[in-house]
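Morning!

This is the sequence you dropped in the shared folder:
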Amino acid sequence: MEVPINYLAVLAAGVSNMILGYLWYGPLFGKQWIAWSGMNQQSLDAAKTKGVAKSYILMFVGALVMAYVLSHVIVFGSAYTQTTGISAGVSSAVWSWLGFIAPVTLGSVLWDNKPWKLWILNNAYNLVALVLMGIILSLWL
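The structure's back. Tokens below.
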């Protein structure tokens, strides 16, 4: 059985992830993220002088991989739950976040001594990003 992956939808979902990240960690919650992650403006400026193009490229590749895998999860989940459309995309995204991202990222609080506020901020971003991707992918399947 061939899985019907729409590569244009994967690309759109990847781009949406990058736009959301820019907004989330910039104008929306940038100041909180800087404070809670232990950074300051000097460390951000130092990172910018080193060049961030490589980091953005790698993040975009990661977003494309996540969108590609989520598209498979939506196909499999749709067959299992007998759902289609946006509900299939949203439920696949939420279950993926709950089962994989939320538990794995707990280590940042439990072992790296990062604040819970940062965990919530980062995980809320991941949840919103996955749901947005799920909607895009499910509409284009």
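Headline: DSSP finds seven helices and no strands in the chain.

More detail when I'm at my desk.
O.
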